[in-house]
Amino acid sequence: MARTIIPFGPQHPVLPEPVHLDLVVEDEKVVEARPSIGFIHRGLEKLAEKKDYVEFVYVAERICGICSFIHGQSYCQAIETIMNVTVPPRALYLRTVWGELSRIHSHLLWLGLLADAMGFESLFMHSWRVRERVLNIIEATTGGRVIFGSCKIGGVRRDIDPAMITHIQSEMKTIEKEMREITTVFMNDRSVKSRLCGVGVLTKQEAYELGCVGPMLRASGVAQDMRKLGYAAYKDIPVEPITRTEGDSYARCAVRSEELFQSVDIIRQALERIPDGEIAVKVTGNPNGETIMRTEQPRGEVAYCVKATGSKNLQRFRVRTPTFANLPAMLKVLQGCDLADVPVLVLTIDPCISCTER
Amino acid sequence: MAFFQMTSLVMKWIFRKPVTSRYPFEPRVPLAGSRGKLVFTDGNCVYCTACAKKCPANALIVSRDKKTMEIDRLRCISCGYCVDVCPKKSFSLGEAHSSPVTTKSSELQIHKSGNEETGAPKAAEGNSTSAPK
Amino acid sequence: MTPEQTMEPIAVETLLQRVQKMHEDGYRLVQIHATTLPDKLEITYSFDLDLRLASLRLHLPLEEPRLPSVSTIYGCAVLYENEMHDLFRVQVDGMTLDFKGNLYKTAVKFPFGSTKAPGVTCAAIAPAPTPKPAAGAAPVK
Question: Most exposed: A47, A322, B68, C135, by fewest CB within 10 Å?
């Protein structure tokens, strides 16, 4: 059988961001996928040499447009660890609430994009309708819809007042109900199932060996979640990783769907227990030291390697984003799949290419 | 196993008011607390250039001699860092976002000089400014 | 806040052995990164097992840094190694998938690499009417 190479991307209707794949196909079967990334390398890691460590929070938040808050939070946590800053408990709880809100909005975005990739347009619209409610909470509490800008070294920049907390709690009820309607469709609809079940199976062993992170790893049966490290308020609010054993696209969809409700639960607990007090401490001096900070983003584990030498600018700022770790697994599941399944498989890793290249 | 989940979802929403808005005709009203356009109130400003030094996007150009404050609306990221650092509390963040423009220009605000001219959009003057960094 | 982070200095010669040992012990590769120090290049390999983070660290000279590839042990290491090559000018031998310097499309070759190393000129590949000032001009603003 003759082999054909089909270029996929960098601009493709299913891809929100540019990544290019050369798909080697035999008839309708993909034999091999050769990636080429690097279209949007922005050199943000190098920018650490120009911006001082305080204003770099704003740069860290802009690494990604979807998991922006957790990027900022991880960066702040890394600097706080180096400088031995004790963040007030209220700030930790607020960070947790915002982090989980951003997880809900990221997962709803992904569910919508997945429906779109399958050609299920109405489900896509309904997912994003619910997401809009989450974005409204985010805008009302932090001031930004996508870039929260509310995390700073030593705490947070804004407080949530009691009236707003009550509003979020009642809004969460509606959001949970609406999400339940949508995820029921994702889990039970026949057309969704026929596109996802058994497609792109990744065994537990393979997923672990290929260095997968986040929902990708959990869908293959490895119970790993960085929130178990107990940063922010997760030391008081235990998180049990949601796992599935099938390892196919349907399992990845199921893991993310269930995580939505887990996040709602965490937000509810955090808002009930939120302690009173300061929201930030003053941080003086320059960092000197090194740390690797890992946190759980919607897409998986992110690793921040920060090295400072006592000057205003960091010596090295390095981010290993979740998509970077999931790319080898994507290439693996693409081998042997049908050409028509490529868009769905590319989406199931929840690719965020801007994150990957920084 | 649930049947007709999507159908019931669709039927429920088919008789409701749409959640989308007719955007250009009905402008979106920002929520209370939204970080929008940066507002500079002169009067207190001593042109210390603290804001320009701290601005992460280098959107502020302050001239100490000319007593001018220039805000580059296209660079400003509405982060509110200048609001925090200003010793005289001359900045605030409005809720409305700055409107789209077709030309690139800074907004020059002059204070304490001969002609009191505020808020007039003018082209950026490259020289005679204190370097932000 | 961060439980159990270990950092162990190793020599380049023992790298493959140590990584093989990590693999046998069931560690997952978290990341590989390089840092340009004033006089040397620092490479860090981080591994994770049950939320414990173990790192191996080695140093390379700034002139012609060379490393053996660990991609035969951890398949996913190719991306990190290609990244190190493209940004830091580290020659990694024996990668299972070599992008030959084409993973990242940067205007400046090896933007994060040392400016002292011989043969590094930061002349941009992209059309540059005026020669760039001394080596090390960052691709960003």
Answer: C135
First to last CA, chain A: 40
**Which residues contact residue B64 at a Cβ distance below 8 angstroms, ignoring those fewer than 6 apart?**
B47, B49, B130
Cα A136 from Cα A157, distance rounded (Å): 18
Q: How many structural domains comprise chain C? A: 1
What order of strands is seen across the sheet that includes strand A288-297? A288-297, A300-309, A316-320
- In which domain, by residue range, is C26 found? 5-93
Q: Given A291, A303, A307, which is nearest C30 (Cβ)?
A: A303
Residues 258-317 of A with CB under 8 A from C: 291-294, 301, 303, 305, 307, 315-316
- Residue C83, exposed/middle/buried by CB under 10 A (0-12, 13-18, 19+)? buried
Domain covering B35-122 assigned CATH 3.30.70.3270 in the classification: yes
* Cβ separation A43–C139 shorter than 8 A: yes
- Residue A132 in any domain: the answer is yes
Residue A229 sits in a domain whose CATH number is 1.10.645.10
ipTM here: 0.80
Contact B62, B68 (CB under 8 A): yes
Domain boundaries, chain B: 35-122
